[in-house]
Design goal:
Number of strands: 4
Oligomer: single chain
Structural class: alpha+beta
Mean pLDDT: 95
CATH architecture: 2-Layer Sandwich
Radius of gyration: 13 Å
CATH superfamily: YhbY-like
Strand content: 15-25%
CATH class: Alpha Beta
Largest sheet: 4 strands, mixed
Shape: globular
Helix content: 25-40%
Strand order of the largest sheet: 1-2-4-3
Distance between the termini: 12 Å
Length: about 100
């Protein structure tokens, strides 16, 4: 689990990122989770935006994505979810302790 200090640090890192995935009418599916998992391995920190036509609640979407990709939800702000997962081979972000 992430501490408050680590979440603050990650939020500041994620601030300038643009969302690279969008969850729409179809909701969360296996293919999307696999792609997000792959991108998290290379980037560690990503934003996912939830489109207006998505039927699911944003908290449910965040939960599904974090469970499927084994990632941490850093923040849900508006219709944007920030996800973090420590990379196995490509560590770039050093979390404060």
């Amino acid at each position: 689990m992430l501490t408050g200090k680590q979440k603050r640090f990650l939020r500041s890192k994620a601030h300038h990122l643009t969302p690279i995935f969008q969850v729409g009418k179809g909701g969360v599916n296996e293919n999307m989770i696999k792609q997000i998992d792959d991108v998290l391995e290379s980037r560690e920190l990503i934003k996912v935006s939830i489109l207006q036509n998505c039927d699911e609640d944003r908290n449910d979407v965040a939960q599904d994505l974090s469970k499927g990709a084994h990632a941490q939800v850093v923040q849900i702000i508006g219709n944007t979810i920030v996800l973090y997962k420590q990379s196995k081979e490509n560590k770039q972000i050093v979390l404060p302790s």
